[in-house]
Amino acid sequence: MRFTGFTVLLIFILSISHLQAQSMQGLQGFGLSSLLPSQTTVQATAQVDVPADRVQLQIQMTVTDNTPQRTFELHKEREQALVQLIEEQDIDPSTLRFQPVTIHQVRSQGTNEYRTQQRVSLTLEDFDLYEEIQVYLIRNGFDNFSGQFASSKQSEGEREALNLAIKSAREKADQIADALDLKVVRVHSVEHRSAPSTGNIAVEAALMRSDSGSLMEFEQTIRIESSVEISFTMQSEQ
Fold first, then answer.
1. pLDDT by residue (tens digit) across 199-211?
2. Is 0.85 topped by the overall pTM?
3. Which of 126, 157, 182, 236 could hold 224 in an S-S bridge, CB 3.0 to 4.6 Å?
4. Residue pair 229/40 in contact by the 8 Å Cβ criterion
């Protein structure tokens, strides 16, 4: 009988596989399966508080009128009022974020109207200016805006929270390994999730002042949360 090169290679592979299976059975039979590497997945979460030293102001500009031309004209007036505010208050234009204006037709009770929409965002470092801007917006026809705290230390907080979460996961893995007479030999995989938590500022609360001052005078923080899921490879120390 003649054996081709492919047949010989196939027999060799099957022989190796059979020997590996016998070796696994032998290890288990002698109670040596703990010598083989195993994987353990550990989850950990860490939180870091950073100072809330900025305010992000979200403005939704909406204008409704009977004709598209007049609707656009009124919207342009709102835009000009906002540009004037930025220039007069010397607001850093690099913090300005906006979407293009859109217009659509609205049918209601047999009448046709046209409505524009545009979203604008500003970042302010002066909390007193934030309160003044709200009054300015209301006087100039803006009635849909809100604010939330932000932090100039956002990136630093995210890095710190991630490092703490990784450290916590490694400590948990070492604790598990010690309890099982194993040791951590390598990291197999890492998954990471980060979610900053910010508190909204109610417009009414920000506008209301008492004899003792403003709520904005109280220091606020932003809690940044980072979660990791790490798979560690463990092996017996023997």
1. 444 444 444 444 4
2. no
3. 157
4. no
